[in-house]
Amino acid sequence: MTLGGLALAVGILVDMSTVAIENIHAHLAQGKHVARAVADSGREVALPLLVAMLCGLAVFIPSCLMEGAAKALFVALSLAVGFSMVISYLLASSFVPVASVWLIRAHRKAKIETAGKTASAFENFQNAYASLITHLVKVRWVVAVVCLAAAALLIQFIGGRLGTEIFPRVDTGQLQLRLRAPTGTRVEGTEAIALDVLKLLEAEAGKENVELTLGFVGVHAPSYPVNLVYQWNGGSEEGVLQVQLKRRAAVRIDDLKERLRHKLREQMPVVSFSFEPSDIVSRVMSFGAPTPIEVAVSGPSLPANQAFAEKIREKLERISSLRDIQYGQALDYPTVDVAINREKAGLMGVKTIDVSRSLVAATASSRFTTPVYWADPNSGVAYQIQVQIPQRQMNSTEEVKNIPAARREGKSILLRSVASVTGGTAVGQYERYNMQRLVTLTANIEGTDLGTAAQQITEAIKEAGAAPRASRWPCEARYCRCAKCSKVCRRACSWLWWSSSCCWRRIFNHFDCRWW
């Protein structure tokens, strides 16, 4: 962003020196000595250049009020522009005049013969402009009032119609689509869905317009030496597809997305789809979020959060400009619940750790319970050896019940003898904010700007009703209401103080208060 700020300020930097040099030549044309022309020119342009510099700096002052990732991005750009403009002004007021005295060795006064000569069109424009400016300067206060009134009218009638965006949208010809099959779908099933989606995409965009496609299905293997933050999927039911169109392809990405939404909804109703930022600029401007809109419901009770998030989702679906509304987490991931009967296990001499090790080794791999390495005697390279049951064989709860939980007196004790195995569901992915679980709703925008969509979403959240109240919250310097005496705390909870008029507690135990 620093280099971007310098590139943005190049025009202004050149303009300041250009104005100073042009005014010096204007004084030289009047027959003045070089030193006198430079001095008079400097006095004339010093104040206008200062005002121009301050106007430029005022544009970037709001960036200092930003927070989070936006501040980290735009403050660097603003500082680069600001310092370069200040240095440019100082150089235009000091170095440029001195260099002009040195470089302009002699200036021969040009004899301008006006008699019998016709002025050029540009000279006529210069004279007319100079005459206009002379008359306007005489009534400068009237001009200032008119300008302010015109600016107020423009802000009132046009400003309300302008959209608000963090960064202008650019059609880069790239597309990234995240698909989510029904929770629990195996990798093979998700792969087949991804291939069908690619065929549909090529049919809509035109196979001759597609330059490159890239896809990833499922999750990384535990032994894969790449951090999951670079390619995140929640489970085997998720996949990511990236498409690069050719430069000369006459296909608008936004129109292509709309057509794909209708086609995918018709042909694959059980699969969820969401378009994500594809180019590097859009990814940075999203600040890590997969979509421009992300509503997070946080609290100590996950069921209460989910119930309130469902209310918000019903309200969001009424907003016509939102697309791809869905939960950010898989909330109904299929599970196998194993409940050990400790009395039976104790009578048979089976320990809980024996059951857990057997389950992990049978359903995943022995590498998670008993790491075994074999060193090649020829090369000395160590290889990890693991034992696992083929996933195709472990395809029902009956197979899980037949897993040997332990071995006693030469006989295997099956899992069904010491535990009950039932099917269930659970949250596939836990996300937390301030140590409290989140339920997030994600959505894309189509046909409107980010600011308008944010206002609509704020109204929808208000219509959803009051959020579930938490029993205990740490205040963290926010206003709060005591749960016992209903008095309002307007002091930061980081202060260690006591009050006899209210039932405060010490900071180490937190205050028993709720958000107000």
List the helices and strands and how they pair.
Layout: H1 2-28, H2 34-60, H3 68-93, H4 95-103, H5 121-138, H6 140-157, E1 174-180, H7 187-205, E2 210-217, E3 238-245, H8 253-267, E4 272-276, H9 280-285, E5 293-298, H10 302-316, E6 322-327, E7 333-340, H11 342-348, H12 352-363, E8 372-375, E9 382-385, H13 397-401, E10 404-408, E11 411-414, E12 419-426, E13 432-433, E14 436-445, H14 450-463, E15 480-482, E16 488-489, E17 513-515
Antiparallel strand pairs: 1-3, 1-4, 2-3, 5-14, 6-14, 7-12, 8-9, 10-11, 13-14, 15-16, 15-17
Write the CATH architecture name of the largest domain.
Answer: 2-Layer Sandwich
- Oligomeric status of the shown chains? single chain
Structural class: alpha+beta
Annotation, overall tally of beta strands:
17
Report the end-to-end length measured between terminal Cα atoms: 39 Å
**How would you describe the shape?**
elongated
